[in-house]
Amino acid sequence: MLQGASTELGQACVTTLFTILLLTQGGIFLTHPQLATLSCDRPNSNLGICKLMLSSLLGKKVVPFPLTQLEGAEVKHHGKLRQLVLLLPDGKLHFPVNHGFSDTEGKAAQINAFLQNSEIQSLSLRQDSRWATYSMGLIMTGFGSWLIWSYISNLLKRFSSRPDL
Within a 10 A sphere around the Cβ of 118, how many other Cβ atoms? Predict the structure, then answer.
């Protein structure tokens, strides 16, 4: 009897930890910025302004900076995922990790080509990973919610079927 209770308690702990992990990761996917837009306008040879806009369910963040500060772009690898990084003299601006299927290397090359050719007047790039990240977030939070519901309903069934002591 005690052995069965110990096993059941262990399973409950593992299920609870797994559920918390799923719900947390799902929440991160749902609220992490998934849409990034970079726009640079160069009305005169090198004078201009760039704007990086990051959008998520929590809102938008706009980071303006002078075009003269943009030194280039590179791609950072996270396993199979890629991240576009803008190089500035005082640090780096990171696009969200690309969970979608867009060409991150191509975007970096496009930014570097824009910087090398002052005749190009404007640059506009968009990285949209919403379908991939929202899908993963919904799957994880949905499965985690189902685990909670299943566990609670099993507990309620067990307590309701127990004879009064």
Answer: 12
Tell me how many helices (H) and strands (E) the chain has.
3, 7
**Three-state DSSP state, 37:** strand
Looking at residue 110, its amino acid is: Q
What pLDDT digit, counting tens, does each position of 53-94 carry?
A: 998 888 899 999 999 999 999 999 888 888 899 999 999 988
Computed on alpha carbons and rounded to an integer, the radius of gyration of the chain in Å comes to 24
DSSP state of 144: H
Q: What is the pLDDT averaged over residues 6-18?
A: 77
Domain ranges of the chain: 33-134
Question: 100: exposed, middle or buried (C-beta count within 10 Å: 0-12, 13-18, 19+)?
Answer: middle
Which letter does DSSP use for residue 82 in this model? E
Task: Report phi then psi at 114, rounded to 5.
Answer: -60, -40
Whether the CA torsion 56, 61, 67, 72 is positive or negative: it is: negative
pTM value is: 0.69
